Amino acid sequence: MATTDRQATTLALAHALSAAERGLPVIPLSRTKLPALRSPHRGTTDPAGVPCHGECGRFGHGVHDASTDPARIRALFAAAPRATGYGIACGRPPHHLIGVDLDTKSGTDSSAALRELALRHLFTIPATVVVLTPSGGRHLWLSGPPDVVVPNSAGRLAPGIDIRGA
Ligand SMILES: [Zn+2]
Prior knowledge:
This protein is an alpha+beta fold. It has 3 helices and 7 strands; from the N terminus they run H-E-H-E-E-H-E-E-E-E.
């Protein structure tokens, strides 16, 4: 089992480096799809009330750890021996990636809801990378405009449509 985990980590690192080579900042993820590195500030209360986004110089700040630098990515994965996947930080240059998560849970037809939004607001959904999720949903990946910040949202555009942006 330990060997299998190590192989999964090695494979995740290889894929993460490949994504980074294409300009996508990455972090190691655990089997639960959460950041594989725990916060160095767990259990501590910051007296200033300002959350650290990596200014302390240590790993463990989730999406703020994300990098396209191969040396830093290798160091992140070395510090996360139980990582089995990788995550991409959306909204950052050069691609300004936007993830459109179309859920099918609780009977919502989010694909139809997106088509309806497109008709109502007169836009077309461009041909793009689509990932089919194990639960029957879809992830549409788009590059966004550099001068617009697209925030995360869940169910705001329509039920079952989540946006992953900056
Ligand atoms: Zn910190």
